[in-house]
Amino acid sequence: MRTDAHLRARGLDTLIGNTPLLAIACNYRGERRVVYAKSENLNMTGSVKDRMALHILQQGYARGTLTPGGLIIEATSGNTGISFSAIGRALGHPVAIFMPDWMSQERIDLIRSFGADIHLVSHEQGGFVGSIRLAEELAARTPGAFLPRQFSNQDNCAAHERTTGPEIWTQLRHLGLVPDAFVAGIGTGGTIMGVGRHFRRMRPTVKLHPMEPASSPTLSTGHKVGKHRIQGVSDEFIPAIVDLGWLDGIIAVDDGDAILMAQKLARELGLAVGISSGGNFLGALKAQSGLAAGAVVVTIFCDSNKKYLSTDLMREEPPRDGYLSPDVELLGFEAIGRSCTMCADPVEEEPGRIF
Ligand code: PMP
Q1: Which residues have C-beta atoms less than 6 Å from ligand 1?
Q2: Average pLDDT value for residue range 131-143
Q3: Is 93 exposed, middle or buried (0-12, 13-18, 19+ CB in 10 A)?
Q4: Is 276 a catalytic residue?
Q5: To which H or E segment does residue 336 belong?
Q6: Which residue of the set 47, 216, 276, 325 is catalytic?
Q7: Per-residue pLDDT averaged across 188-192, rounded?
Q8: What angle, rounded to 10 degrees, do the helices at 165-174 and 190-202 form?
Q9: What angle, 0 to 180 degrees and rounded to 10, lies between the N-to-C axes of helices 79-90 and 105-113?
Q10: Is residue 310 among the annotated active site residues?
Q11: Which ligand 1 atom sits nearest the alpha carbon of residue 303?
């Protein structure tokens, strides 16, 4: 269906998805390793959430639940708010965002820069869960409002099942590889559930490991416990779209270790990624340790470091006993191009590993 919104932002989908896959080589505890990471920092607003936001809005139009000019209202820890604010504006919608008040200043400023109304929600007002309740309340009293409901909307998973998963599969095929495991921190869980569905359809034995901060094991306990600095994951509850019984073992990563790893990726390889990307990289190394030598483990670089310039990512992080990152010697990477999801049968290059 074509709408005015489509005419306002033609080819919007060419700015989102089809990101490169990086094959990152390192030495880790005496072994040569390669970790595959999808560069989601290269999306339109710089995060993986653009895929979900675009797909949910497209589905909203297709089903008639989103109408031209309708107010888009979402609760988010940041990246989703940035994605809906930018893509919503591109399509001509006003946007209202509810967000806990402890997220980075960059997130708040970016959302404001897109002209969205931002409502910061304190711990006393209920934090994350309070943000969701307040978003629902505003929608209930606003005619024509559209609630993407990223934590419970299966279109979130479908975005990754249709794009991220097939793209990674195709990119690995270029190298003559198939994935043995996929590791991703859970915010809404859309990424791991959607990529996981595609991977399991293609290869039922593939392992799917959620990564969570060791100091705040929401997935392991079922509720908010402790505090952590890996913004964007492990919010305060297990989202409705996540089926932990279908996923494999949870991998815990220390937030300080994730920060050190993200710093190392930027400093040593020029890969400017956010804190959850550092955590995902370490989670992938951990998953690989439990698999046969040379196992193909894939993860996600969810966003860039630019939203963390005011956070501990830019400060000196003290290493602690048990951290993995000091044992990682990064050697280099190869970027595997932006392949087209529709190219089901890519030209096979020299099969085998590239490092
Ligand atoms: N990392 C960051 C920085 C994020 O913003 C998010 C999304 N909240 C995630 C990881 C997790 O992605 P998902 O919501 O698909 O689980």
Answers
A1: 47-49, 77, 79, 185-191, 231-233, 274, 276, 302-303
A2: 96
A3: buried
A4: yes
A5: strand 328-336
A6: 276
A7: 98
A8: 50
A9: 10
A10: no
A11: 3
Give the full edge-to-edge strand order of the sheet including 328-336: 251-253, 207-213, 181-185, 297-301, 31-39, 21-28, 328-336
What is the per-residue burial (b if ≥16 Cβ within 10 Å, else e) of 28-65? Answer: beeeebbbbbbbbbbbbbbbbbbbbbbbbbbbbbeeee
What tokens were used for 203?
């290869």
Ligand 1 centroid – CA 173 distance (Å): 26
Could you tell me the distance, in angstroms and rounded to a whole number, from the CA of residue 260 to the centre of ligand 1? 19
Q: How far apart are CA 178 and CA 205, in angstroms?
A: 11
Sole residue written with tokens 């929600």: 121
Radius of gyration of the chain (CA): 19
Region at 193 (left for phi over 0; alpha for psi -120 to 50; beta for the rest):
alpha
pLDDT score of 351 more than 70:
no
Query: Which of 276, 304, 307 to probe ligand 1 with, by most ligand atoms within 8 A of CB?
Result: 276
Question: Closest residue (by CA) to atom 12 of ligand 1?
Answer: 187
Of 38, 49, 207, 264, which is the active-site residue?
49
| Nearest to 338, CA basis, from 106, 164, 140, 132 | 164
Nearest-atom index, ligand 1, CA of 302: 1
pLDDT in tens, 8-30: 788 898 999 999 999 999 999 99
3-class secondary structure, 303: strand
Q: What is the pLDDT of residues 262-295, one digit of tens each?
A: 999 999 999 999 999 999 999 999 999 999 999 9
Of ligand 1's atoms, which has the minimum distance to the CA of residue 160?
Answer: 15
Percent of the chain with pLDDT strictly greater than 90: 86
